[in-house]
Design brief:
Blueprint: E1 2-7, H1 12-24, E2 29-34, H2 37-46, E3 50-53, H3 55-64, E4 67-71, H4 79-82, H5 86-94, E5 98-102, H6 119-134
Parallel strand pairs: 1-2, 1-4, 2-3, 4-5
């Protein structure tokens, strides 16, 4: 199973997701793509098997992923303070993968009906969703 974690800015959310996935699913191929080098380094240190930075690595990784995990902004062009290019958003949205999108209500993207959750609560919920997908 190829799991792709995408994150930007400081990579805090992605780092915690990578750690949690690596602990629970040691046999999964864990890829990480940061929209900047700080996010990539954080996810690589957290245990990603492969890590890269930027638009083209994200597009290529989306083609290989079975599951994509990241903040909801990864499917919205110009989100994450402009770090998500239109091509990146399209690659994630059109990927033949299950997407687990975390509703981070920041950067002028607010998801109605979803309470503001702590990063810990988002990680726990994303891991529960991943567990459900992995058991299919």
């Amino acid at each position: 199973m190829n799991i792709l974690v995408i994150d930007g800015q400081g990579g805090k959310l992605g780092c915690q997701m990578v750690k949690s996935i690596a602990e629970k699913y040691p046999d999964a191929k864990l890829m990480a793509v940061g929209t900047n080098s700080a996010a990539t380094v954080a996810m690589a240190k957290a245990g990603a098997h492969q890590a890269a930075t930027g638009e083209n690595p994200l597009i290529v990784a989306c083609r290989k992923a079975d599951i994509i995990i990241g903040p909801i902004g990864i499917v919205i062009a110009d989100s994450l303070f402009g770090e998500i290019t239109p091509a990146m958003a399209v690659a994630v949205a059109q990927a033949d993968a299950v997407r687990i999108l975390m509703p981070v209500n920041r950067c002028d993207n607010i998801v109605a009906g979803v309470p503001d959750l702590s990063l810990t609560a988002l990680i726990l919920d994303a891991m529960a969703k991943l567990e459900s997908v992995m058991q299919r």
